[in-house]
């Protein structure tokens, strides 16, 4: 359904994305994952025909995003990072306007507006001015706006950014409901969010694809090693050397003077050994816990892996 | 055509729902009325003097001495007001990121621009129509020639069209409304007074400058003449402004 080949875009001398290639099938829910500035929004802007790419092609339903932009815009609903809301308009007026703008015939407009109001649970705010709604409701209006012409494809750029935890859960639920009947691309820099909604993940880092994979294989791939955090009361020089003598320990890095990250082989279960060593040497354990991988670690790991393959 | 109206309708709704339109209309009507009353007072004083001196009952020309200067002054007030109407058009959409909505919709960029142009013209048209009471009053109390009044107003609309197209161009350049207003005011004033450089610029360039000045082409309309050359000038001026706007917006998508 969506076919992207060697897509590149540069803003002046700065390359936002480089040689991006991926495919998305009908009915898939795909997550774009990447740190801020990785090129997620740029890619989504190109796919929704807002800006042309510098080189490469992107096709949606066989139509080229540059040549047949008008036809494609009928097929996609787009929620930009900042929802495009006119803060002085009433919710229903705004949705009526977007419906007409997207080519919904005037006779069908009221029913289309009614439907998205129902889908996005906007019934109790439909007569209020958008600018006075809470951020969560504004985001819903933004999603309603993308849905109004019943598009096949939804492109949602960071749909949960800036919302409180309850609102995030609500929006997530809404997207999961929509997933059954639409092809959805959504971007985020929060890993758990993607894991809950998407079947497939495209990880972008520094304008390039770091990994395209299903979620299961990605998580198993990343669980290759385990990691412990050890914090002690006083630093003695030989801590790192001693820890390295333990079986199955791969690397030890000093974070602060009294804090160490221990990377070990999978299923190593070395907590006991580390604790015993600390007690025997009187380091004074303050903290010993499994350290979870942050998003940055995952990127680092993935990009490092890639480089290793190349060399 | 339908899409142009959809864009224009939203802009109009937003203008009528905000105090901007009412404030600008009030300012325009108050200034316009003040100037009209003063011109009229001066006129009645003069005709009184003329009657006393010559004794005979020859009235002065109402068209030449009241209506023409009133419309001329109105054009100057519009020069101040229109940048404030047009400044929002693109600058505000860009600032509040709503421009992405228009750009991701299945309509042409040209339709967006014409929609914005139409919305501004309707607002300014309303202002001009509301000001008709002043000159309309003269029709009841005096015997002005009706023809030049109509052509005068036609010239006023065309002239407003030029200001609007410059205003839209300025607004497309920036996402800051004040910058947009200042730029379009500067452009409009420059185009208005371009003829002042005629004498200094030498015969050929001077003629060109005089042709390009907005005010040169307004004079015949105020006198009751509709020259096709003036119509061509105004329409090409408007279209050129809108064309530049199109270029600016299109090129900003590539950057």
Kindly describe this structure.
The complex is a heterodimer of chains A (311) and B (255). Helix content of chain A is 36%, strand content 29%. Chain A has 311 residues and is an alpha/beta fold. Chain A folds into two domains: 2-221, P-loop containing nucleotide triphosphate hydrolases (Rossmann fold), CATH 3.40.50; 223-310, 2-Layer Sandwich (Alpha-Beta Plaits). The longest helix of chain A is centred in the C-terminal third of the chain and has 16 residues, at 295-310. Chain A is elongated, with a radius of gyration of 24 Å. The relative contact order of chain A is 0.13. Chain B is mainly alpha-helical and 255 residues long. In chain B, 84% of the residues lie in helices and 0% in strands. The mean pLDDT of chain B is 91. Chain A binds chain B through residues 11-12, 48-52, 70-71, 73-74, 76, 78, 80, 82-89, 93, 97-98, 100-103, 145, and chain B through 3, 6-7, 9-10, 13-14, 17-18, 96-108, 253-255.
**Tally of individual helices of chain A:** 11
The separation of the N and C termini of chain B measures: 29 Å
Q: What general outline of chain B do the C-alpha atoms trace?
A: globular
The largest β sheet of chain A comes out as: 6 strands, mixed
Pair with the most extensive interface?
A-B, 30 and 25 residues
Using DSSP, what is the number of strands of chain A? 14
Figure out the total of helices of chain B: 12
* CATH-assigned homologous superfamily of the largest domain in chain A: P-loop containing nucleotide triphosphate hydrolases
Give the SSE order of chain A as H and E letters: EEEHEEHEHHHEHEHEEHEHEEHEH
Estimate the mean pLDDT confidence of chain A. Answer: 83
Radius of gyration of chain B: 20 Å
Question: What best-fitting shape of chain A do the alpha-carbon axes yield?
Answer: elongated
N- to C-terminal distance of chain A: 34 Å
Tell me the radius of gyration of chain A: 24 Å
List the domain count of chain A as a whole number. Answer: 2
CATH architectural designation of the largest domain in chain A:
3-Layer(aba) Sandwich
Identify the quaternary structure here: heterodimer
Percentage of residues in helical conformation of chain B = over 70%
